Amino acid sequence: MQDLDEFTATDAALEQMAATPNARLKEIGDAAVRHMHAFAREVNLTPEEWLFGIQFLTDVGKACTPVRQEFILLSDVLGLSAVVNALHDKKARELGSQSSLLGPFYREGAPELPLGACIAAHPSVEEIVIYGRVTSNDGKPIAGALIQVWQTSEHGLYDLQTHGLEGTDLRANFRTDAQGRYHFRTVRPLGYSIPMDGPVGEMVKAQKRHGFRPSHIHFLIGGEGFRELVTALYFGDDEHIDSDTVFGVSGSLVVNAAEDPNSPVPGLRAVHYDFRLAAAAPGESGRVGADPTKMMQAAE
């Protein structure tokens, strides 16, 4: 029996985990232990601070509901989601369009609408048009690609925040035509604050951060034989375009709605954006999107 100190406790924990049969689980578990122990030593973590952290994570868990995923929000505001995204992109055989964050408000089962439909049930401002093509990296059109879109309203709220799980608004699915083209009508989404009434919001306020996301529209695009693309288009004139609180903005994803003679819906301002999908590796499903609301349902 060995008396443990702040260093030998790490060795003892790793030794007990050494027989983990799943190699990847062992790799992740070992690294998590090493880094967590090193963090505690670096900051000279006190028992009071450790208990405060435990209580914070407990509160994050309690804040999760079928329509609110506080742990994904925590990952987002800490920049961890952006790191995981970048690592996922780095593993691709080839890169398509730039990815962005899935976020906590995605859900499966949105209605499939015909091309050109409006995804806003009761728009109170002028509509805009989003259009373009979905192609492979070499420019070949991808017919029948599934495009899932979701966004806030002109008032800055997602349907999950206003309707819960009852009914949908400002989210829909579309299929590209034979030439890989898509278009739909919507309203300019309003940039919004992340939920600030929970533990993650309290942390953001304690860090003196504004907590805002710039105006954007989410896309989840997939086609047979291609890696699924999780991304978003960000409106460049939003005041928070350079300080997204969840680090989702990339320069290639910044757009503006403008008069466009090539728009498939004349008379409305339009955003033209072409998406490129990367080929999936042999045996790779390419699937990366996951409905956060299903996490709570699976736990019940």
Question: Can you offer a commentary on this structure?
Answer:
By secondary structure, the protein is of the alpha/beta class. The protein is built from 8 helices and 11 strands. β7 and β8 form a beta hairpin. The chain starts with 7 loop residues before the first helix and ends with a helix. The model has no long low-confidence stretch (mean pLDDT about 90).
Features:
300 residues, alpha/beta, Protocatechuate 3,4-Dioxygenase, subunit A, four-stranded mixed β-sheet, 8 helices, globular
What is the topological layout?
Blueprint: H1 8-16, H2 23-43, H3 47-63, H4 70-77, H5 80-90, E1 127-136, E2 146-151, H6 159-163, E3 171-175, E4 181-187, E5 192-193, H7 199-206, E6 212-213, E7 216-222, E8 229-235, E9 254-255, E10 270-272, E11 275-277, H8 293-299
Parallel strand pairs: 1-10, 1-11, 8-9
Antiparallel strand pairs: 1-4, 2-3, 2-7, 5-6, 7-8
**Termini Cα gap:** 41 Å
Give the overall shape: globular
**Number of extended strands:** 11
Largest β sheet strand count, sense and barrel closure: 5 strands, mixed
Query: How much strand content do the residues show?
Result: 15-25%
Estimate the helix proportion, in percent.
25-40%
So, CATH architecture? Sandwich
Quick check: average pLDDT?
92
Which runs of at least 5 residues are low in confidence (pLDDT < 50)?
Answer: none
Please, how many helices?
8
Q: Which fold name corresponds to the CATH topology? A: Protocatechuate 3,4-Dioxygenase, subunit A
Can you identify the CATH superfamily?
Aromatic compound dioxygenase
